[in-house]
Amino acid sequence: MKQIDDQMSQNLIKPDSIMKELIVYFSLVYLLTWLCWAPSFSIEFSHLTQTILLNLGNFMPSIIAAMLIVCSMKKDDVPKMISRVFRIRFSFVWYLFAICLMPVLLGTAYLITYFITGLEFQSLLLPIIIPEIWPLIPLVGYFIAVQGPLGEELGWRGYALPKLFQLFNPFKSSIILGIVWSFWHYPKFLLTGTIQFELAGVYGIMIAIVGYTLYTVLLTLMITLLFVKTNGSVWAVMLFHAISNFSHGLFTILLDTSGAVIMLMLMMLLTFTMVAKNKELYFKQLIVSC
Prior knowledge:
Blueprint: H1 15-37, H2 47-58, H3 60-71, H4 77-85, H5 92-117, H6 126-129, H7 136-145, H8 149-165, H9 170-185, H10 195-203, H11 205-229, H12 234-250, H13 257-277, H14 279-283
């Protein structure tokens, strides 16, 4: 199995030190993100201020990771991170995985839901794309730059996941990171205009949180497979994340109870299959250099 990074670390792993680094990272991300999001809950701030701070908060996972890497004074960390971000040469199979998996999953979930319940097709993005095909490219660029991937993945996958690999196998690392990632989003269940707020409005906040957490953990297990198979490519993960967000704009079935249940069932089936077929990858401790 291909290991993360070309050069394997031969140094003795210090679990306590790595755990402290992760706790500091996650704590700073939560604190600074939520401070940036806080004005969005108050009418005392202008819409422009709220928007700027909301988007700044969305970038905190990557910003904090970059700051910690620079402040760590470990001369090898910066080039390693840059290498991961620009690691674009990997098997075409994994480009297909990154680009096609979520659109196919969501499209399949919609078709199944349609045949069972007659669910009417609804899309937020299709009316924008259909008139002319050219908006597709800037839309995908928007989802990469603003709607999550660039602001998050340098941190979640570029910084935190390799450190988790030094403490746990990829399966446990994915469960932990999936829960951490979900929890980071929780304030948005109270924030008007977010998909999390819409989910809470349809299902109630507790059911929405449980379903969203399950979805995010399953998604994290999928992303971990992509990350390892592409030798730690943050670019591959960013592409997957962007296409995933884009696909949810094309197929807005999560706001329908039947559609959401079928989507989660498909994700569980696919994730179980991935884990079963890649047991060595998920359950064997990886040797990585962070």
